[in-house]
């Protein structure tokens, strides 16, 4: 999503022979990459013994149900820990030292498990945390306390109803994906360095007055499939420079909200828009004042191509795609 890829994290050979006297028999430890251990897709139900030299541990696509404190006692040098697509439950993850002693851990992938909360006592070194496709209902400030280095947080496809002020201390966060949850409002205290915000498939019907006041570096906002109405969007909320892409499709809007002339991609399809208001894109039009919009989607609304003003070509002179 965005320019962050969730692929390409495999290093070394997946077909390597089991080597090294301390390598568990059920895993592969390639000699060409001695700090990696591949235990993925082996039908494992329990955590293997992890040699202290390991930095990259691949345990995805198994049937592991628990991460006891004892299983990671020697895994203090881990940098990447991949445990997605397992059967982990929150009550079976150790709360004392399970992850806490991994002072260099940067990536923790726990998506597609059975977690009901974010694991506690995560190391402050984490940069990339993925807990999507679980059963998490609430995120508290304690869950993310001290995560100063966290850059990416994938929480999508859970059952989150409330995040409180849990994001307040995430001063390095650039990508937040909480789409596919049960949020009724935008999370509070969005981090100032946020670059991408994904809130699709929730039940949000309004935005706070200061929605984009602090997040001046935000470039991508996706809020499709919510319950947004004109009344729920304060005036000029999206008329801010820096925004590159705005997706408000599949909501309940009746008017085109005013946007900045610097916006490049606007998606408003499948709303209830009844009028093409050119003033939403350009307050004045001349040689230097015009919209930088390249993509405009208005299909699935209550307007047709005949409703587009004849002078729109001057304002939207860069638009290569206008669908009505």
Radius of gyration: 23 Å
Q: What is the arithmetic mean of pLDDT?
A: 92
Helix count, DSSP H or I runs of 4 or more residues: 1
Order of helices and strands: EEEEEEEEEEEEHE
Largest sheet: 13 strands, parallel
N- and C-termini, Cα separation = 27 Å
**Share in β-strands:** 5-15%
Instruction: Tell me the helix content.
Output: under 10%
Strand runs, count: 13
Structural class label: mainly beta
Give the neighbour order of strands across the main sheet.
Answer: 1-2-3-4-5-6-7-8-9-10-11-12-13
Overall geometry comes to elongated
Unreliable stretches covering 5 or more consecutive residues: 1-17
Question: What do you see in this structure?
Answer:
This protein has one helix at 312-315; strands at 36-38, 56-58, 80-82, 107-109, 128-130, 152-154, 175-177, 196-198, 220-222, 245-247, 265-267, 295-297, 321-323. By secondary structure, it is an all-beta fold. Helix 1 links the parallel strand 12 and strand 13. The model is unreliable at 1-17 (pLDDT under 50).
């Amino acid at each position: 999503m965005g320019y962050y890829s969730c692929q390409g994290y495999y290093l070394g050979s997946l077909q390597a022979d089991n080597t090294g006297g301390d390598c568990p028999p059920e895993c592969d430890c390639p000699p060409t990459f001695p700090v990696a251990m591949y235990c993925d897709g082996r039908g494992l139900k329990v955590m293997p013994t992890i040699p202290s030299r390991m930095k990259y541990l691949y345990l995805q696509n198994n049937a592991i149900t628990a991460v006891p404190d004892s299983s990671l006692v020697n895994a203090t040098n881990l940098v990447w820990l991949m445990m997605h697509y397992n059967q982990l439950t929150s009550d079976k993850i150790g709360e004392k030292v399970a992850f806490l002693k991994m002072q260099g851990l940067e990536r923790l992938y726990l998506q597609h498990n059975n977690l009901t909360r974010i694991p506690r006592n995560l190391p402050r070194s984490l940069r990339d945390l993925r807990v999507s496709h679980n059963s998490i209902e609430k995120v508290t400030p304690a869950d993310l306390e001290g995560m100063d280095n966290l850059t990416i947080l994938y929480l999508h496809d859970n059952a989150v109803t409330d995040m409180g002020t849990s994001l307040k201390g995430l001063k390095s966060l650039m990508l937040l994906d909480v789409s596919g949850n049960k949020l009724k409002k935008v999370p509070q205290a969005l981090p100032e360095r946020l670059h991408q915000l994904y809130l699709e498939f929730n039940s949000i019907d309004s935005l706070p007055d200061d929605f984009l006041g602090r997040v001046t570096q935000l470039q991508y906002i996706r809020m499709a499939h919510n319950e947004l109405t004109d009344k729920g969007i304060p005036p000029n909320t999206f008329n801010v420079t820096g925004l590159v892409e705005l997706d408000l499709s599949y909501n309940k809007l009746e008017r085109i909200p005013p946007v900045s002339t610097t916006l490049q991609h606007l998606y408003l399809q499948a709303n209830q828009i009844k009028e093409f208001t050119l003033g939403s894109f350009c307050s004045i039009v001349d040689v230097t004042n015009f919209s930088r919009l390249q993509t405009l989607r208005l299909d699935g609304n209550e307007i047709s191509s005949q409703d587009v003003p004849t002078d729109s070509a001057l304002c939207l002179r860069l638009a290569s795609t206008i669908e009505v």
